[in-house]
Amino acid sequence: MSDNRAGKILRIVEGVEGVESVAYWAAAAPVLAHLPAALGYRMACWRGDLLFRCHAGRRTEVARNLRLVLGNELSPAAAQQVTRDWFRLASCSVVDVKRLRRGAQPLRQLVEIRGQEHLEAALAAGKGAILCSAHFGSFTSGISVLHASGFPATHIGRWYWNYTPGLSSADRRRRSHAERWFWDRVCAKPVLRYRQRPNIEPWPGRPQVAALAAAALRANEVVTILIDAPLINDSDQARAIEVPFLGGRARLLPGAVTLAQLTGAPLLMGFLYRSADYRHQVWEISAPVPVEGDTATVFGRWAAEVSAAIRRSPAHWDLWDTTSLADLGLIQLQEDRSPGPRRSASAPRSPDAPITNETVSARETVPVLERPEESIPE
């Protein structure tokens, strides 16, 4: 192996959260994706259980945040069970991405689309359709399944490795080349193979985002957007509105409402649920929802739908890490001034950030942790 190639591999390993995460995405998950589905997803769950046991810091953080936000809806024992399932779903989501091959058939045969007739009727009008979802379930590969099933899909959203959380907006693209190369190859490439267009990434100072989305709708495509995206810069903060969410108030971006009102495209809600056997999934797609009225009222209704879905299946929601909840405004942060190196925040769902174990209430502040990236980071 040449020195240059060895150096590239070493930089990749250093730039992501660890050898295990790299090995799982690059080697283990592709093997699991070629096994019979029952065995492959069972082994992915075993990996999730191992992470649950080994990463006490992340396990404690997620369980604590579940109870902070949902309160008495979850007992301590139930919060632990949801947390364990959260780890399992993260591992299974990677296998989903690796099953996107041969026309996505290995994954399509495991995904049922309920409400397909709503999408078909929406596209029959010729104005495209906007499908709103959340960081819920295996949404990234699920969007690709919709496309492979005959619904040309384009997603509005950022690939997380194209920015750096915690830096000013001018510095957000300072990821290493090796890191971006790795995630582009193992995550984005198989997903984008089954998309109509590349992601429309809403960077600050990029007004053409709305024009690109409108063009996709004029081409009678399905434009997907996640309405629970945490705010990452001043531009996001300025455009956000505050709505009731999960028993508190969250600041979210209402761009989907504006896009639907300006283009006349019907807007639908969709959530991807994983079955108890962990291998089968169900897209639940609603009929078009009304968009008449002021932006805050319309968007508040959508936020209520997302809250209800999360309460029904809390383990399906990716954003139970402390920093994401703070970005949404559901909890407050205090600076962690303890000495020692900070953890890299570059790998999807690596549950290893240390946290303090003190008891906190929903009105108290919690230590700042770098955001763990979503299982399928988009």
Please describe what this structure looks like.
The protein has 14 helices and ten strands. It is of the alpha/beta class and 378 residues long. It has one domain. The strands form three sheets. Strands 1-8-7-2-4-3 form a six-stranded mixed sheet, with helices on both faces. Strands 5-6 form a two-stranded antiparallel sheet. Helix 3 packs across helix 5. The longest helix has 23 residues. The chain is globular, with a radius of gyration of 20 Å. About 15% of the residues have low confidence.
The span between the termini is 33 Å
**What kind of assembly state do the chains in view correspond to?**
single chain
Q: In DSSP terms, counting alpha (H) and pi (I) runs of 4 or more, how many helices?
A: 14
List SSEs in N-to-C order: HHHHHHEHEHEHHEHEEHEEHHEE
Uncertain residue ranges: 9-16, 166-173, 336-375
Percent in strands: 5-15%
**What is the residue-averaged pLDDT?**
82
Strands of the widest sheet, in order across it, are: 1-8-7-2-4-3
What structural class results from the helix and strand content?
alpha/beta
Helix content: 40-55%
Distinctive features:
378 residues; alpha/beta; 6-stranded mixed beta sheet; two-stranded antiparallel sheet; 14 helices; globular
How is the secondary structure organized here?
Elements: H1 3-15, H2 19-34, H3 37-54, H4 56-70, H5 76-98, H6 105-108, E1 111-114, H7 116-124, E2 129-133, H8 139-148, E3 153-156, H9 177-192, H10 208-218, E4 222-226, H11 234-239, E5 241-245, E6 248-252, H12 255-263, E7 267-274, E8 281-285, H13 295-312, H14 322-328, E9 332-334, E10 365-367
Helix pairs in contact: 2-3, 2-5, 3-5, 4-5
